[in-house]
Amino acid sequence: MNPEIVLPALAAGFEALMEYLSAHVLTCLIPAFFIAGAIAALLQREAVLKYFGKDSPKWLCYSVASTSGTILAVCSCTILPMFAGICRRGAGIGPATAFLFAGPAINLLAVVLTARVLGLELGAARIAAAVSMAIIIGLIMAAIFERGSDEAEGTEEAACTVPASGGGGEDGRPGYIPPLFVGFLVAVLLAATSGIDLWPKAAIVSALVIASAWLLMRYFTEMEKASFLEETWWLTKRIFPLLLVGTFITGIIGYYLPVDLIRRIFGESDFAACLVASVIGALLYMPTLLEVPIVGTMFGYSSGAMAPGPALALLLAGPSMSLPNMIVIWRIIGSKRATVYITLVIILSTLMGMIYGMVAS
Questions:
Q1: Which candidate, 117, 77, 141, places its Cα nearest to that of 315?
Q2: How far apart are CA 178 and CA 48, in angstroms?
Q3: Which are the contacts of 183, defined by CB distance < 8 A and separation ≥ 6?
Q4: What local confidence, expressed as pLDDT, does residue 190 receive?
Q5: For a Cys-Cys bond, which of 167, 301, 343, 349 suits 317, CB 3.0-4.6 Å?
């Protein structure tokens, strides 16, 4: 291989990696991993899933389903067993598919990183579009499949039977303590990524960290503390290396990427560009958080090569689906439901991208 060609590409990958590490690890990723660990170890998912029964009020079940991704912090892989579980328990196909899409689409870590790296406007658009899409997908799926012959497939046989969690915690701990602890960690993340001056920011973050540590030491058992740290470390070692490798590779690809070709395909927020972006996103496997450097660097959104519309379409379809994900969904809910669900994700991602493109232009 010609060193004159390879070395600049490697340098571009290294530069992208260093920029990513210096800008986002301390203030963004470290707090986010602690939040995800607390969610996985200290909050009960049953408290959310119990609202997914088909007999629950629509405003309640779709509100929970379309926003649960911010609480559960799942990706397109870990959402699948949870989706299968709530289907077996008798959750309505509408709330279940709303949950299936929204879980990875509004993953807290990914949304914060989107706003931080790609801009607050795109981050806010991603949240609004993902929540809206989840509700629309759920309502359409319910309208098509909750009545008629397809009910025999079995996902609608019974209301959700997940028991409600008690009001208290270990050793009489008030039930609001775990959510409060997670809330303090979220506040650390928001303060650390804000535009406040350095010293006031350091004082606020320090106070929030101390308050979080006090809650952890005062109200949680040794087993819960160990579980919290283990979950945080497990998430970190599972996701962080992928982020490093992925960011480095996207930097290299970005060096070779034909900017003129990208501008011709994704330079406008028209129907064709948004549709192609949605289809690419639906087929690609994007590990958690990696969609941000993929859109920003590989597809050139940060350099202006990619228009806002296709960027949002890719951010909506990409994290929520992939080819392996589609295969599993197909097996869980059957070919008819899976086909309609996948089609809805692609079409709605395209439309949301076009709408955002018109607003942002």
A1: 117
A2: 14
A3: none
A4: 77
A5: 349
C-alpha span between 62 and 137 (Å, rounded)? 10
d(CA 209, CA 233): 18
Cα torsion 349, 85, 49, 107: sign: negative
For the chain, give the number of residues: 361
Q: What is the pLDDT of residue 156?
A: 36
The three-class DSSP label of residue 168 is: strand
Looking up tokens 């969690």 gives 165
23 is written with which tokens?
Answer: 């800008």
Q: What are phi and psi of 36, to 5 degrees?
A: -60, -40
What whole-number distance in Å separates Cα of residue 14 and Cα of residue 36?
28
Nearest to 310 by CA among 342, 278, 343: 278
Whether 288 and 239 have beta carbons less than 8 Å apart is answered as yes
Distance CA 85, CA 48 (A): 13
**Residue 197 corresponds to which tokens in the numbers above?**
């001056």
Could you give the CA distance from residue 118 to residue 116 in angstroms, rounded to a whole number?
Answer: 6
- Which of 34, 88, 81 minimizes the C-alpha distance to 229? 34
Q: What is the pLDDT of residue 49?
A: 56
* Sequence-distant (≥ 6) Cβ neighbours of residue 55 within 8 angstroms: 159
**What is the distance in angstroms between the CA of the first residue and the CA of the last residue of the chain?**
42
168: which strand partners?
A: 174
Q: Which of 337, 358, 340 is nearest to 274 (CA)?
A: 358
What does pLDDT average to in each consecutive run of 10 residues of the chain (361 residues)? 77 81 72 80 63 72 79 64 70 87 81 86 93 94 73 39 42 83 87 83 95 95 92 81 77 74 85 93 75 84 90 92 81 90 96 95 73
The residues near 194 (Cβ < 8 Å, ≥ 6 apart) are 201
* Chain centroid to CA 142: 23
CA dihedral angle for residue 14, residue 284, residue 29, residue 103, rounded to 10 degrees = 180
Place of tokens 């006090």: 214
Residue 171 tokens read as: 């050793």
